[in-house]
TrEMBL record:
InterPro entries to which the protein is assigned, alphabetical: LiaF_TM
Pfam families (UniProt xref): LiaF-TM (PF22570)
Leader sequence residues: none
Transmembrane parts of this sequence: 7-26, 32-48, 53-71, 77-103
Keyword Cell membrane: no
Ranges for domain LiaF transmembrane: 8-101
Name the record gives this protein: LiaF transmembrane domain-containing protein
Keywords: Membrane, Transmembrane, Transmembrane helix
UniProt superkingdom: Bacteria
Record lineage: Bacteria, Bacillati, Bacillota, Bacilli, Lactobacillales
Length: 248
């Protein structure tokens, strides 16, 4: 993780320096005002972060916002902002379907044991993961994969250790109120244009290490920590999505 952070800040600072020099030397005919530069730096920040963490939705939508910002010099002023964003959504869905299996090896939180079947027609696949249902999972290691659907999982375990939760263009709700953590546990999330809600015991000492790329991470409820509270680390990536941690 530290290596990725170093790469991210290195690339971001180099691009920022290049943008500053180009804007001051007037090497291009387009005139940069102060707020355009600030907005560009902000978008470049998220673009580099999305590239470093292999976030398809973050990369595509950041490029879409840059295209909207520089529509005139790019010669696409005839396109409305909604047209560009609509195209970005379709591109994100298409690239996610094509590239997610290859990107999984670069993103450990995506390595989920999903059942994949292929239809007789080439290049068409579907996932058999009970996307739109409710299930009770009795296991120390939990995998949840929701794609273009909704899923609710109730976890039951006397020795909970890990959970891998992925939501792409879908919504996942996972309840951990009937599990026991003996020492430590890890919950890995990957949210892309989706929503994940984690319902966790209020006596858990939750350690948050989630990377946020143009998404939202929130908490609700009140923690009640004691000397025996287990440490539970939540890691992963939220890209153009929402992660909510609800203490119950």
């Amino acid at each position: 993780m530290r290596n990725r952070n170093g790469i991210f800040w290195g690339i971001f600072l180099l691009l920022s320096a290049a943008l500053l020099i180009v804007s001051q030397l007037h090497l291009i005919t387009y005139t940069f005002n102060f707020w355009t530069i600030i907005a560009t730096l902000f978008l470049v920040f998220f673009l580099v972060k999305s590239l470093v963490y292999f976030s398809i939705s973050g990369t595509v939508f950041t490029l879409a916002f840059l295209a909207i910002l520089y529509a005139k010099p790019l010669g696409i002023a005839a396109l409305s902002a909604w047209t560009i964003l609509g195209a970005a959504l379709l591109i994100t869905i298409g690239l996610s379907l094509i590239l997610n299996p290859f990107l999984a090896k670069h993103r450990p939180w995506m390595r989920i044991k999903s059942k994949m079947k292929w239809s007789r027609r080439p290049f068409i696949s579907y996932y058999e993961d009970d996307d739109d249902d409710t299930k009770t999972v009795d296991s120390s290691d939990v995998d949840v994969f929701v794609k273009m659907g909704n899923g609710v999982r109730y976890v039951r375990s006397d020795d909970f250790q890990t959970a891998n939760i992925q939501a792409n263009l879908g919504e996942a709700k996972v309840y951990f109120d009937h599990v026991t953590v003996r020492d430590t546990a890890t919950i890995k999330v990957n949210v892309s244009l989706g929503n994940v809600e984690l319902f966790v015991p209020r006596n858990w000492n939750v350690i948050k290490g989630v990377n946020n790329s143009m998404g939202n991470i929130s908490e609700a409820g009140t923690q009640k920590l004691t000397a025996d509270s287990p440490n539970v680390t939540i890691t992963g990536l939220v890209s153009m999505g929402n992660l909510k941690i609800q203490y119950i």
